[in-house]
Write a structure and sequence with these properties.
Strand order of the largest sheet: 2-1-3-4
Structural class: alpha/beta
Radius of gyration: 20 Å
Shape: globular
Distance between the termini: 39 Å
Oligomer: single chain
Number of helices: 9
Number of strands: 4
Order of helices and strands: HEHEHEHEHHHHH
Largest sheet: 4 strands, parallel
Length: about 325
């Protein structure tokens, strides 16, 4: 297990430490690409998380962990996407700002294209919001459209943390099962961005549905029940009617130390993935094109050179929009 400083003490989005792509100059990015061409891309949401937790919680969870990983590995972090697709059950929930699935997918594909064109062709996309039914689909659509060498990996934070986010009955550290904005998720908040959490205002709720327990999975879909949360409509009520408080469960039980294991498990895994990628394919190297595409050798070579090199092309000569 890596040595991770928890709880965290502030974020790095406007830091001069050259963690984020958007704070770096062209020259600095060109130098970074010579040694590390992996980029972490965090996806979050703007969503009601109750009276004690911030609306940008899903963003801060992934950005704070990306920052920790970048400090350890020297990779680059993209500024996050603050808005997201949401399931039907979220519509109408006050303070949540959903965007359509097709818009989310188009944004993901465009982001991938932009970073590929920049030279960051090894991307780790990550989300704690539950967009796992959109982001991998967008990645697949992008690959089908462009058919160029690339390494794209989607990390669903909660599935990777797994048992570390479960309740004690299932081998985890929490009193209650993991659900949206509850004890487990609020504990993660306290560990990663305690400055945004107001525990004195935490409001608990009782979780219930229209069907007996055992059919629909709980938060993060980590319990292995038959249906993921987004794989049903009508198994429970919509949130603005059933959970207007913005949370499902008991955020008042949250403690930072309860979440340390989940955060460490996730960060340890992403560091391993990062290191395995670069060990196999050092900066500037990708899997051989012949194993990933039937585009002509000449076209692939021009695209890999990029638009600012002699004989090079930008990726949108293949297709626009992404």
């Amino acid at each position: 297990m890596g040595n991770w400083e928890l709880p965290r003490k502030g974020g790095k989005m406007e830091s001069t430490e050259k963690i984020y792509y958007q704070t770096m100059t062209k020259r600095e990015l060109e130098e970074r690409l010579k040694v590390n061409d992996v980029i972490l891309i965090p996806f979050g949401s703007t969503e009601n998380h109750g009276d004690s937790q911030p609306m940008g919680e899903d963003v801060f969870i992934v950005t704070r962990m990306c920052e920790m990983i970048a400090e350890k590995t020297g990779c680059t972090v993209a500024e996050p996407m603050w808005y997201a697709s949401h399931p039907f059950s979220h519509l109408g929930q006050r303070f949540t700002v959903p965007i359509p699935d097709d818009v989310t997918s188009a944004l993901v594909r465009s982001i991938i294209s932009g970073y590929w064109n920049a030279g960051f062709r090894k991307m780790i996309l990550m989300s704690s919001h539950g967009q796992e039914y959109i982001i991998p689909s967008a990645m697949q659509e992008w690959a089908k459209r462009y058919q160029v060498p690339a390494m794209l990996f989607f990390m669903d934070v909660w599935k990777i943390s797994g048992q570390s986010m479960m309740d004690k009955e299932h081998g985890g550290p929490f009193e209650t099962p993991f659900r949206h904005g509850d004890e487990a998720e609020n504990s993660v908040c306290l560990a990663l961005f305690p400055e945004f959490v107001q525990m004195e205002h935490a409001v608990d709720t009782e979780c219930w549905g229209f069907l007996p327990a055992g059919h629909i999975d709980k938060g993060g879909d980590i319990y292995g029940l038959p249906m993921a949360g987004q794989s049903q409509i009508g198994g429970g009520g919509v949130e603005f009617a059933v959970y207007p408080e913005g949370v499902l469960g008991k955020p008042s039980l949250a403690k930072a130390e309860k979440a340390f294991g989940a955060i460490e498990d996730y960060c340890d895994y992403v560091v391993k993935l990062h290191n395995d990628i670069l060990e196999k394919f050092p900066a500037g190297k990708l899997p051989e094109a012949k194993y990933m595409t039937q585009r002509s050798k000449e076209e692939i070579e021009a695209l890999l050179k990029g638009p600012d090199k002699e004989g090079g092309k930008h990726i949108w000569t293949v297709a626009w929009p992404s």
